[in-house]
Amino acid sequence: MVNENKILEEEKISKLLLKFSVPCIMGLLISAFYNIVDQIFIGNSTLGYLGNAATGVSFPVICIANAFAWCVGDGAASYLSICAGRKDTDSAHKSVGTGITVTLLISIVLMLICEIAAVPLMNLFGASDQTLGLSVTYFRIVAAFFPFYLLLNVMNSMIRADGSPAFAMKAMVMGAIINIILDPIFIFLLKWGIAGAAWATAIGQVVSFVMCAVYFFKPKSFKLKKSSFIPNITILSKMINLGAATFITQISIVAVTLVSNMTLARYGALSKYGPDIPISVFSIQTKVYTIVLNIVTGIVLGGQPIFGYNYGAKRMDRVREAYKIVLRATLITGITATIIFQLWPKVVVGIFGSGNGLYQEFAVKTFRIYLSLMTVTCLVKMTAVFFQSIGKSKYAVMASVIRDIICFTPLAIILPAILEGSESGTGINGILYAAPISDLVAIAVIFVLTISFFRKLNKEIVIEEQKELAS
Predict the structure, then answer these.
(1) How do the domains of the chain map onto residue ranges?
(2) Membrane-spanning regions, if any (predicted)?
(3) pLDDT, tens digit (0-9, with 9 covering 90-100), for 339-385
(4) Of 280, 317, 384, 456, which sits with the fewest C-beta atoms within 10 Å of its C-beta?
(5) Half-sphere exposure of 413 (CA within 13 A, CB side)
(6) What is the largest CA-CA distance in the chain?
(7) Residues near 310 by Cβ (< 8 Å), separated by ≥ 6?
(8) d(Cα 157, Cα 347) in Å, to the nearest integer?
């Protein structure tokens, strides 16, 4: 642990970020890949876009489950890094054990609720008469494995914070490989259809979970005891505070998806596209959007141990330097994604299966309008994770809610109603324009938060320099 701390405090920042961020990015991409692989195989099967619409309907509920897991996992990860900077080894093992126990209890409760209420949940999130049966079949299988899935996500975050991002990535890679192998076997060879996709996903998650569980027998920075797994309310409170931004981000995705699906179904039915084409396209858009945000999140999470440790150790100069590098990487990612979505939307959508002319038309329109300011969305996400990493929960929460909850959700309801009543447009276009408008408002707020924080940080750097000169 001493050597690991020394590296975080003295190693070149760019080298550290490369070491930690690449495995984080890969791990998060692979996590997102689970649902994407399902959609690719389903979209290219006889189920077509209806199958993709069915998996898209279940996605928000899976996000709700993830919200709890990542709140605990990211909160524990941030807390571990800060504890390392403060040399507080006793709190470290208690935070890990508490996180695992609490997640297990939450996952069991969520599993039972989802199994009992599968049909009303799928109806709530936009299932049509054509997709309800498919949605329920897929969702019930996936929900049955929530204890494995949620614990996997929590432990993966903890493993990254423990200084082993490469191992965390390997665990996710192995599960993804299993999923990719089993998808065509279950869907096409055994003809299990959408149930086959769900079983392939679940089995892959169990494999990743087992690998992560094995890691905790020999972690780097803490040693688990039986007493570690007795929830510590004080530490849990701190972890939840640190992970609140992640929780809100995931719930925001649910709110966006719920409002989007309801609006798309309502105004889609009044348009030439019908209700199922818009929901299917948005399901694909959400998955692609998630890939880009996971790259950005991976970059920032790679910096989490650096941010957290050095902030705890009062090395504010290193915090500022790491932030600048992460900011540049985020801008490059966002700009690259925007160019791809603007120039080649049909190529991206085509990966998930073909559709009729109306399907293609709405897909192109969605990617070019809805994702037009993807770079701004990336900056908002990066800022929220950064503030979470250094324990600035209030800043992190504000960065998390400004785009999706405060701006997008009301706009997605208001704009379609306005456009439906106008002569120049249809209601379904309103939800597409709600995204870039929300991005513009969010970036203004993010700018103010960031400037405010770094002004305070610069003052802290000056104070630390004066203390060093005085000593």
Answers:
(1) 20-231, 247-463
(2) 16-37, 57-84, 96-118, 138-159, 171-190, 196-218, 239-268, 288-313, 325-344, 369-389, 401-419, 431-454
(3) 999 999 888 888 776 667 888 888 899 999 999 999 999 999 899 88
(4) 456
(5) 10
(6) 75
(7) 8, 9, 85, 316, 318, 319, 322
(8) 33
* 122 and 136 Cβ atoms separated by less than 8 Å: yes
Q: How far is CA 410 from CA 136, 249, 365, in A?
A: 29, 17, 21
- Of 4, 81, 33, 12, nearest to 291 by C-alpha is 33
For 411, the token pair is 């706009």
DSSP class of residue 228 equals: G
**Where do we find the tokens 């050095």?**
310
Residue type, 392: K
Identify the residue whose tokens are 């150790």.
Answer: 313
Greater confidence (264 vs 466) lies with 264
What's the one-letter identity of residue 49? Y
Q: Which pTM was predicted?
A: 0.70
CA distances from 427 to 273, 370, 405, 416, 441 (A): 12, 14, 20, 4, 22
Query: How far apart (Å, rounded) are the C-alpha atoms in residues 135 and 119?
Result: 9
Q: Can you tell me the distance from the alpha carbon of 368 to that of 357, in angstroms, rounded to the nearest whole number?
A: 17
Place of tokens 């209806």: 50
Which amino acid, one-letter code, is at 468? Answer: E
The number of CA neighbours under 13 Å toward the Cβ of 242 is 26
Q: What is the pLDDT of residue 336?
A: 95
Residue 446 CB: number of other CB atoms within 10 A? 22
